[in-house]
Amino acid sequence: MIKTTFYSLLLGLLMACGPSKKTELAWSKSLYQIGSQSSPKATDLNGDGILDIVMGAGTEELAPSDQGVVALDGKTGELIWQQSATAQIVGSAKFYDISGDGVDDIFIGGRNHNLMALDGTNGEIIWKYEYTFEDDPILQYARYNFYNSTLVPDQNADGHPDLLTVNGGNWDALPGSSEDRFPGVLMLLDLKSGNVLAADTMPDGQESYMSPLCFTQPGSKDATVIFGTGGETMSGSLYQTTLTDLKAEKLNEATVLASEQGHGFIAPPVIADVTRDGYYDIITATHASQLHAIDGKNLDTIWKRSFPQMECSNGFAVGQFTGDASPDFLAIMSKGTWPDYTVGMQVVLDGKDGSIAYQDSIGCFSLSSPVVYDINNDGWDEAILSIGEYDCATQLTEDVRSPATISSQLVVLDFARDRQQVLDRTVGFKNFYSTPWIGDLDQDDYLDIVYPQYYNADDLFRFLGMTVKRVSTGIRMRGPMLWGEYMGANGQSVYPS
Questions:
Q1: Are 373 and 354 spatial neighbours (Cβ–Cβ below 8 Å)?
Q2: DSSP secondary structure letter of residue 396
Q3: Which residues, other chains included, contact 331 with Cβ-Cβ below 8 Å and sequence gap of 6+?
């Protein structure tokens, strides 16, 4: 059982750091009626030198909302702007200044084929994806959900990167049924106009929920693309291709890296050099909690670990958790079968061989991912994650939609000392989806933590209001932030060598 403390009591973690400024709640912003499956991202939108917060949001999954995307002032928490959407915006923001005004613009997607580029200064739409492809043999299927996109090297010689994304997942399909399921579509879009430059359907004809990744191996002239298929109850595979083959509509020639029966690949993998040979390796988890490390040089399996009776839709956190040179991986899994999950489990795998370096089960299930930093400057990274604390065995029925009591907790895991500390505990709130953001918002060389929590309102899976908090800590920033947001630095899911 975790001993409950609060963020004002970070002394245990800060003792090794020497004198520091006071840790305190800088601001808290409540937004009514909405919630989010998006995660906060940060960039300076108003030119005051302080990073501001951008999140996707919404009400019901397919219901329109005036607050599909919100931007909050990093200094005060006040709303800078909002943009409407026809359904929940579940993706997290990508930033790039396409308008040339010195302020990052926002690229973000969600349900019901919502994908848009927004002017960073005012939130106005630069372009929006319009589904007009009923007769196209490939793009006719690109009418469902967009998730997280990634920037890729310029493919149309206009001087700007382009946008790689995936569309898939029919909300009308029943769990376990193959009816009304259509192939996901991997898509390359012109970042400036939103025009589709290339697209192809999944090689196995399956759906896709996984955010695609793009990176370049040392010495390669082409960018590598990783994408996945399958879902909670549908079989799938993890694939490797190139941008060149995508543009030539040759996804059918993609290399299968791993496969799973009865489950697919939902969580984005991580790209990191665990073999220390100068090549990026691919670390991935199936929805059935089979964790693989795949050698980027020869595509052989480096290690594999299985966790029966667990399921995983969470992204990894990457850091130095075991004291050796190889990056290590914190995986979050949930016991049971979606949506009937009970407890959550946290496991650290040693990157070099996949051995279990840490395992615990705190809180109930969570689809949020952790973030990582060496908080106390001891050479080992700590992890910060959001968990839900309630009776995990609660059986939900038509009459009982939520546990009797629930709290949202922000927790630090200190692996070097095998210790846990609660930074914040908010009764009556929850957070199953959103990953915290950590970094230096105001350039004062001290760590800030930004995280959302959602009002429970007696229904575990409904959104009826959210609060976003910024905690200004006394933790001095002594090195670069490598994994401080969902999918790591810039949302690329690449851990630097």
A1: no
A2: -
A3: 285, 289, 291, 312, 314, 316, 346, 347, 348, 349
- Nearest one of 301, 356, 311 to 329, comparing CA atoms: 356
Inter-residue contact 55 to 68 (CB < 8 Å): no
Residue 70 in tokens: 């919100």
How would you classify residue 401: left for phi > 0, otherwise alpha for psi between -120 and 50, otherwise beta? alpha
CA dist 113 and 277 (Å) reads 41
Paired tokens of 256: 């299968």
Reading the block at residue 410, the tokens are 């922000």
Task: State how far the alpha carbon of 182 is from the alpha carbons of 109, 207, 417, 430, 462, in Å.
Answer: 19, 6, 48, 33, 27
Which residues on adjacent β-strands are paired with residue 29?
468
- Name the residue among 41, 38, 497 with its Cα closest to residue 271: 497
Strands 79-85 and 65-72: antiparallel
**135 to 131, 132, 181, 435: CA distances (angstroms):** 11, 8, 18, 38
The pTM score is 0.95
The type of residue at 306 is S
Other Cβ atoms within 10 Å of 273 Cβ, number: 20
Q: Which pLDDT score is estimated for 396?
A: 86
Predicted confidence (pLDDT) per residue in 248-307, tens digit: 999 999 999 999 999 999 999 999 999 999 999 999 999 999 999 999 999 999 999 999
The sign of the CA dihedral 213, 105, 30, 490 is positive
Q: How far apart are CA 488 and CA 197, in angstroms?
A: 27
Which of these, 108, 105, 113, 174, lies nearest to 141 by C-alpha position? 113
In order of 137, 238, 240, 305, 310, the CA distances from 285 in angstroms are 31, 10, 15, 9, 11
Q: Name the burial class of residue 27, with classes exposed (0-12), middle (13-18) and buried (19+) by CB atoms within 10 angstroms of its CB.
A: middle
User: Greatest CA separation found in the chain?
Assistant: 66
**Strand-pair partners of 81:** 71
Q: How far apart are CA 136 and CA 139, in angstroms?
A: 5
